[in-house]
Every structure is written in structure tokens, then in C-alpha cells.
Amino acid sequence: MNVKILVSQAHPAAHALAQALSMTNGALDESRVGIAACLYDAPLRMADPGEFLNLPWFGHQATKPVYPASVVKLFFLDALASFREQGHLAEHEEDDRAAEQMMAISSNEATVYLVGRLTGADDGAPLQGEALEEWCAARHRVQQWFQSQNRSEFAGINVLHGTYEDSPYGRAKQIRNGKNGNLLTPLSAAALMHDIARGARARSDWMMGLMNREFQRHSNDADPAGDQVLGFLVEGLPRDVMTWSKAGHTSWTRHDLVYGETPDGKSFVLCVMCDGEWSATDKSFLPNFAQLFYRHAFQA
Description:
The chain is α+β, with helices and mostly antiparallel strands. It has a single domain, classed as DD-peptidase/beta-lactamase superfamily (Beta-lactamase, 3-Layer(aba) Sandwich), CATH 3.40.710. 38% of the residues lie in helices and 12% in strands. The protein is built from eleven helices and five strands. The chain has helices at 12-22, 72-85, 93-104, 108-119, 129-139, 141-148, 171-176, 186-197, 204-211, 277-281, 285-298; strands at residues 33-40, 58-60, 242-249, 253-261, 267-275. Strands 2-1-5-4-3 form a five-stranded antiparallel β-sheet. The radius of gyration is 19 Å and the shape is globular.
């Protein structure tokens, strides 16, 4: 993949990475972290600067595919918006309800439902032979749609299956055998967020509304189901920074993808993906990173 990455030790994200890693006392090293970040002089919602790759963005292992956990839900939302806009999927209020829950509280049930709607290949009992082959072929519909866009930002990604509390079952487990797991890169996630915020994807305003994270920002220590603030990047940002995000974590990953607008009229896209058991259980690295990133980018 031929993608030009700005790698500068003077970039706010580079400073934040070095300092946030030092605060882990060796529990996390840079090989376990992927980053893609871009800074803007104006809110993306009001001033379109063009495509992500044409801007001076920063990357650290930004093109390394990793299991994305629930960050992949933004890609399914994007596909839903586009399939509806193009008339490939009939409008249904149940899809809206699922989309809202998928983004607001990261509902796995809603995601599995929407994957079935998008592909026509619902979860169910195991299949054999030609029936399984046909089901697997249909399940690749969203993946093929992203591939058809021929964008280098999306190289190396897999958008193939829903997310589950413990494990997929039946035919959903069958398709996961081998190399059929979801994969995203920090670059792919940051570039998609960038395009949605600047209005370059179908129904961008609708998707932005579903990603608004303000309703979950709170000052107490509560950790409600589906919270995507505590332990993630948004927690470390000043309260007067408006945020739109999609976080994700499993027993071996912790990620966050954020678009933010500052009080003085600037904005940023930031994706940080961490893997390893320590990252999965730790709730300090991502908030610390965000706090340091913001300090170096906007308060220096």
C-alpha cells in the first residue's frame, strides 16, 4: 500500500504517545499502539479541506490492520447510509432503532441485526456445502462495497461480521474460521470519520447525530452499560470540546475514534488503537493520551 504518512517527532500526537507510554511504566510499548491523527484550522462540518490523505496527517503504525472491536460499527453505519441512499435497501424504522443503539450504547444485538439486513445473510444454524458457500458469498457484500471504492485508505480492512458478547454461533462461527475476522487500520477509521464530518459520505449529518457523545459525558464515576467515555479518549478531553466518537474494546483490545471541535473554532480527528491484555483492562492510557494530545495541539 503506497500511502504517504507524516511522521514527525514534533507532532502533538508523537509527543502524546511518548509521554503517555512513559506513564504506563513499561506495561505498554509503542508496538502495541496504532495512531492516525489530523488537525484542522476550522470545524470540518463548516469548512471542507479535501481528502484525508492530501492533508498533513500523522501516523504511527497507521496502516497496520488490527481487530477493531466495536469501531467497525461505524463502517456498518456508513454502509447502511449509502445502501439506503442508493436505493439498495428499503427504509425501515427498525433499522433506525438498531442504528441508534449500535452507536449510542454499542449494542451487539443491533449490529448483528444490521449485518443481516445489509447482506441478506442472517445469523442462524450451521450450514453445509453449497448453502454455506452461498451464505458466505452474501456475507461479503459490505466488504465488497468498501473494496469497490478503490481507496488506499481502506486497503487491508475486513468488514465481514457482527460483534458478540462471547462468541458467534452456527453459520456466523463458520465464516469466522480461518482469515475472516474483522480488520481495520487506524488510517481507515480516521479517514472515514474525516469524510463523515466534512459531509463527503451519504447522509453524513444523520451519522454525525448518532455519534454525538455529549450525552454520555459525566462528572461522576458511573460506568453505565455501553459507556464510551470513561476509559477512552473522550474522558481526557476538556468538557468544552464537542465530541463525536465510536469506541470499542474486547478482552485483548481497546480503541477509540474521535472527531472533536475546540471552543476557539479548530477541530481534529484522532484514532488510537491498542492491543494486548493490558490495554484491554487499562482505563488510563487513552484518557492520558487525549489529554496530552490536546495540550500539545491546542494549548502549547
